């Protein structure tokens, strides 16, 4: 259901404090919110699996070389081991890279989820069978095919996970701080809802507190007694990372996590140092909760996650996420070789531009679209049909050409509303490719080239359309997003905020990050990188943003008037 609210303007508040101190067990250290964008940058760990081991090591090496002060790992499925190996490799290459006189490195890791492979005959209703190796406190979060995702925040599970963390190996010789974060404690409510589907908001919040309180006590005790507290090596602390903190309570969403629970925990446990929550230009409830957390517990490190990734319905929707970014795309001017040789053509016939610099759909797509429509016009078969009856094979080919032309026309029309690249990929793999396989028994080389070129160029056009549509939503607001021809949602959402001052000369990611970093609420803004190019671009942005993030927005708007 779309939540209809009045359109308002949301802007970051001014900083309320320049510094703060945090007592960590026996070790007292001064913490402060740096005015430097680079010092408040955190490298997200969600995409680490997209790198091969050597590339991931290279990413961490360059991050440390840039003096990035916060690294995030997923905590499951080898993420911690990969991080340890990458840091050790970086130190072997450059022993001085972790000079603690320059800065202290903090690594955050998450505890809560684990994957589990199901037997072929397993069903959800026998989840508690011994075949699942069920642990006390296990809650079935999701199940798909032969894979299930289990969630557990019991004291025993959390404590054993902390003790077994490979990250602790780094503290034998290095001054690295490790922060263990309970991941989405609100998921435990699924167990309550199995028996009481209509549980009230108060009952759900009380259930969360009941489930995670023992774990918090165990984490406090472990962190307080950790060897680093004596002054040798780094320290261990804990906290929470929660998508539920970004969900407005008035929506009565079952996965909402009340901020008061987190405030109480932070006040009760002095080793509870960190909260990560989603905050971006459209999901502003998390932003508001971050301010409340800092106001109530000034010593708390509050970190923004998903600063460039939004989910429908202000974070509560089940549709595909979309990103607040402009893309760097190829745009052919005149390519005499045609679209099929585009990638190998000389640099003089193609350029690369950000989508905010483009005045229309990329030329490479327009060429591929015209070529594909022309290839499937079946003109030769239509001429033959004028003089004789078509054979069965010719009729099937003609019908197939009409179907493909119609499909291409529909895809082109969908660009007007498309919001999410993930939605495009789902449409491609679940509907378009199966349709092509069902339509043609065999495809000749030329047809294969035409289709390959079209879909490659269409992916470029999708990114262009997404960026333009997202900019439109940010500037003017929107009540509902578009849908594909198949009816699948492309990002239904209700926008409560608008940003009419986005300069056309500024990318969406720069604009979004400037706003977040202008608010001193956040000690760090965590951004994921799926390629080295992503990381390099982020470093460039951080250096350009500097100490006065909003100045460039004002100057750009003045120049465009």
Could you describe the 3D structure shown?
This protein has 561 residues and is α/β, with parallel strands linked by helices. It has helices at 53-65, 79-93, 155-163, 189-195, 201-225, 259-268, 284-296, 363-375, 379-387, 392-414, 421-439, 445-476, 508-518, 532-545, 551-560; strands spanning 8-9, 19-24, 27-32, 41-44, 70-72, 105-111, 113-117, 139-144, 147-151, 176-183, 236-241, 272-278, 301-305, 309-310, 322-323, 328-332, 350-354, 497-498, 524-528. It has an 8-stranded parallel beta barrel with strand order 4-5-6-10-11-12-13-19, surrounded by 6 helices. The chain has a 3-stranded antiparallel beta sheet with strand order 7-9-8, with no helix packed on it. The two termini are 39 Å apart. The relative contact order is 0.12. The model is unreliable at 1-32, 333-349 and 480-494 (pLDDT under 50).
